[in-house]
Specification:
Blueprint lengths: L3 E11 L3 E4 H5 L6 H8 L3 E4 L6 H16 L8 E5 L10 H9 L5 E5 L5 H14 L5 E9 L9 H4 L4 E12 H4 L3 E9 L7 E3 L12 E3 L1 H23 L8 E4 L4 H11 L10 H4 L6 H11 L8 E8 L3 E8 L1
Parallel strand pairs: 4-5, 4-6, 11-12
Antiparallel strand pairs: 1-7, 2-3, 6-7, 8-13, 9-10, 12-13
Helix pairs in contact: 3-4, 8-9
Bound molecules: oxa(dethia)-CoA.
Oxa(dethia)-CoA binds next to helix 2, helix 6, helix 8 and strand 12.
Length: about 325
């Protein structure tokens, strides 16, 4: 069997129109712009409109990624949607997106690893593509966390936003890939931490959707160590380093976590792509949203070495290193 690389062909994203600022939130709960900016770096976030679902956001991001790739839906035979806020308990929201795109072949499924979902989905798509099972994958992160927030809980409702991002990955023979593609991925989880960030409902337990609950300080305490460990693994596996990467595109949960991780790893601040100020934490959507911003504003160029990482509920965490 010939060696295959999973090469990024295109990226796209979508944000709902409605913007909720910190000042807006200060009218809803006992908080302030100053507190939110100082503790998180977040200034505003987007919120899905009534009747606007995760599938709608994911579909628009997928369509944008296809345009960027110069491909059509007919070229896609695998869709993996990373989400913790599906339209329904089942079928998978990926199947709705597949239907809306007019695709009736291949496979589509959801993947649930909370904020690490996009990195987990990318690694999963990569494994399928390199095995030769599929030719081109849409890897989507789409979330409507606004629907599972407790809007009375100032400790969580100020942190999250809605949005979607997607990449098109293509299996390319090694000889043609010229070093491009996903170089390594490292996925981890540890269920001992499952009660530190969770939703207090579900089909099999309460029969309700539930609301997000988080021990913020506990999550914060573990985040930097877990993120840097798994990036060190990515560097060890590839021989790359903080100096050789072009862009660090971390999960966008908190500016302080991003800065502390970059500093611990020795990644120069100008290489860090940060969108948390404008998007808030969009969970599985945050990395592809940030990739799209950095691609469109000309920062990420063909051939650049891009480092991704995420950490979230479970805990789950992971890294991926790719040559664009
Ligand atoms: O995607 C991965 C999942 N999530 C994360 O990565 C989040 C990780 N955690 C964090 O980002 C931070 O822990 C937070 C931003 C959630 C909180 O920051 P912190 O510096 O850890 O604050 P804290 O939870 O220790 O709270 C400090 C104070 C408390 O008051 P007292 O007890 O000191 O009087 C809170 O009640 O800030 C208070 N507080 C607020 N004040 C104003 C909590 N939320 C708010 C708020 N506005 N929205």
């Amino acid at each position: 069997m010939i060696g295959l690389h999973s090469v990024v062909r295109g990226v796209g994203s979508y944000l709902p129109q409605k913007v909720l600022t910190n000042a807006d939130l200060a009218h809803m709960v006992d908080t302030s712009d100053e507190w939110i900016v100082q503790r998180t770096g977040i200034r505003e976030r987007h919120i899905a409109a009534d009747g606007e679902f995760t599938s709608h956001l994911g579909l628009k991001a997928a369509q944008a990624a296809l345009v960027d790739a110069g491909l059509t839906a007919a070229d896609i035979d695998l869709i993996i949607l990373a989400t913790s806020t599906p339209d329904q308990t089942f079928p998978a929201t990926a199947v709705t997106i597949q239907y809306e795109l007019g695709i009736t072949r291949g496979a589509a499924f959801d993947l649930q690893a909370v904020c690490s979902g996009f990195v987990f989905a990318l690694a999963t798509a990569d494994a399928h593509l390199r095995m030769g099972s599929f030719k081109r994958a849409l890897v989507i992160g789409a979330e409507t966390f606004s629907r599972i927030l407790d809007w009375q809980d100032r400790g969580t409702c100020v942190l999250f936003g809605d949005g979607a991002g997607a990449v098109v990955l293509e299996a390319v023979p090694e000889a043609e890939a010229q070093g491009r593609g996903l170089l390594t991925s490292h996925l981890r989880s540890d269920g001992r931490h499952r009660s530190k960030l969770f939703v207090d409902g579900g089909p099999s337990s309460t029969g309700t959707v539930g609301h997000l609950r988080m021990e913020g300080r506990e999550v914060f305490k573990h985040a930097v160590g877990m993120i840097t460990d798994v990036i060190t693994d990515a560097f060890a596996a590839t021989g790359q380093s903080a100096d050789s990467i072009d862009w660090f595109v971390p999960h966008q949960a908190n500016r302080r976590i991003i800065d502390a991780s970059a500093q611990k790893l020795g990644i120069a601040p100008e290489k860090v792509v940060t969108t948390v100020q404008a998007h808030g934490n969009t969970s599985a959507a945050s990395i592809p949203l940030a990739l799209d911003v950095a691609r469109r504003d000309g920062r990420i160029k063909d051939g650049d070495l891009v480092l991704l990482e995420a950490m979230g509920g479970g805990f789950t965490w992971g890294s991926a290193l790719l040559r664009w």
